[in-house]
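DATA CLASS: polypeptide
GOAL: derive structure tokens

***
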Amino acid sequence: MRIGESAPRLDAWRKASGLEKYAADYYKGTDERDFLWAGIRRAGIAHGIIKAIDVTKARTVPGVTAILTHQDIDGPNRQGVVKQDQPVLADKKVRHAGEPVALVVSETKAALQEALGLIEVTIDPLPGIFSLEEALANNAVPVHEENSTGNILREMTVVKGRGEAGFDECDVIVEMSFTTPRQEHAYLETEAGWACMRADGTLLIVASTQTPFRDRFEVGHALGLDPEKIRIIAPHLGGAFGGKDGVTVQAFLALAALRSNNRPVKMWWDREESFLAGVKRLPATMEYRLGAKTDGTITALSCRLLFESGAYANLTGEIMTLGVEHAGGPYRIPHTSIYGCAVWGTPGNGCHGTDH
């Protein structure tokens, strides 16, 4: 390869010809017929208290090998990139419609779908929180009761110079508000992977992920496993955009593999499930007040930045912090006052990565 000459991507031919393997594909040396299927029974409502999970009927479906709930998890049953606030399988409460309640393992996909439909979950509904205004209302139902600041996940204020008082030095003041919507990543490859226990006692997980090394610690913590005995392989991604920056199917696959008598287990979310349970780009409301001199010199800035996390923290607090850090752009502004706040809600799962 020389400067000025085009070089083909090393993976271009295999991808273009359809030969490349992705997380949902079985690997050479693994008998596809030996695979078990795993799937999730999800809550179906945005917010509520779990009263009962009845798997009696589902266990009678021919081909079902295991049905697991939070009671089958030996570890703390909590995962998360920064704050471990998200259960692998819901125990007391559901916080979004895609909340996982039970895990089914079966011989066939048909048996899996039948069993998932027979699991009866009794939930006492709570009011849903679907906007920043609802989350911050004085009478808002807390998404996380243990949080002493209500639905505020994190907040911060940064003041420079005279802050708000600096606007008295401005000749021109402009005020505007901006909003960005919640956005689905819509990658071509939905969340998928497979896992198995190996002869040496290690757990192998192949998953569509951007963060295989960090995922080991999330899975290990949640399930009470030694991360040194977990190996996660990240094959080529069929799109991610930050949506696979963290655990999606990995803990489910690990839990299923532990109960599958050394057989490999696969999981694949279709587009509907990916939309329902996958992470999203978070919505934000930004209120700006900008002051300048008549010669165009920007003199003062005041911002109020609100970010909606969804049901769990994931990386929302860090994204909010970056929003505060970059609120003034590349400009030297002598007087600034910037407030940032990240809040919990119940419209879906939280935001993972910042690279989208």
The chain has two domains: 12-126+186-277, 132-183+280-344. The radius of gyration is 24 Å. The CA atoms of residues 70 and 91 lie 6 Å apart. The mean pLDDT is 93.
